[in-house]
Specification:
By secondary structure, this protein is of the alpha/beta class. The chain is built from 9 helices and 11 strands. It starts with a helix and ends in an 11-residue tail after the last strand. Keywords: Metal-binding.
């Protein structure tokens, strides 16, 4: 396992993560022997069951297993029971969150590529301890063909394969030439998207009052949800498989088949 993690941390060092984040080893031992890796967005009980079923001994996730410290280990709590199940089956969990968001060629480049953005630049500087000016969260770039805000929102719905999204705009007929995107919960960065002269901003988890502020500023925002970050699953899986082949590691890498999006549109 150590070889895989060392290689990944050259791609997205832990020190590029935001100061509030919790990345790296989440549970288990980094010196444990690993034969199969399961790549996922979230670590949920059903994903742990999947890891057990496929014989994975490492779960590599984008979202950390532990955002907050456990106050007790009462196994009546499903979260605590999940920790116990992981330990019982000897499964190690590693999380790469905002360091993967900021990494060149990482999460936000994958999202920008999916939207076919051209001539991309970083949106906001990383606050990671060792981040350089090239390490940034979010991307801003140009569409190859201009379209209206409404058309762009429908494009996002199709590209990210979501059953619905939220459009925040007083001018759905306005033309979109330049787009900013930041995966996850990025509503606080909409002023940076405006400063970068984006015509529309794509990010998740926009709440009520920030949405009003966006409208008051005359800015259009598309919220396709947080789960669009699942785009990392095929990219990470392919990257790990390439490294495994190049280094002749005795490792199998598989992508989760579980949809961890908690929301259903009805």
């Amino acid at each position: 396992m150590r070889e895989l993690i060392d290689r990944f941390e050259r791609f997205a060092p832990q020190t590029w993560a935001e100061p509030w984040d919790h990345v790296g080893l989440q549970l288990g031992r980094l010196d444990a022997e690993v034969h199969k890796v399961l790549v996922t967005l979230d670590v949920r009980p059903e994903v742990v069951d999947e890891a057990i079923a496929v014989g994975a001994d490492l779960i590599f996730a984008h979202h950390p297993l532990m955002f907050h410290a456990a106050k007790d280990l009462d196994l009546a709590n499903p979260q605590n029971q999940m920790y116990a199940t992981l330990l019982q089956h000897g499964i190690t969990v590693y999380g790469a969150h905002t360091n993967l968001d900021s990494a060149p060629g990482g999460m936000n480049d994958w999202l920008a590529t999916a939207l076919n953005l051209q001539d991309c630049a970083g949106l906001v500087p990383s606050n990671g301890a060792t981040a350089t000016p090239a390490v940034t969260m979010g991307r801003v770039g140009a569409l190859p063909t201009s379209m209206t805000v409404s058309e762009f929102a429908m494009t996002c719905k199709k590209v990210f394969n979501v059953p619905g999204l939220r459009l925040i705009s007083h001018r759905p007929e306005a033309m979109v030439h330049r787009v900013a995107v930041l995966g996850g919960s990025g509503s606080e960065f909409y002023p940076a998207a405006m400063a970068a002269q984006a015509d529309v901003y794509v990010t998740g988890d926009v709440s009520y009052h920030p949405a009003h502020d966006m409208l008051a500023a005359g800015f259009s925002v598309v919220d396709p949800g947080h789960h669009i970050e699942s785009i990392c699953i095929p990219h990470l899986t392919r990257m790990f498989q390439d490294w495994t082949t190049a280094n002749d590691w005795p490792l199998t890498v598989v992508a989760t088949q579980i949809n961890t999006d908690p929301f259903t549109f009805i």
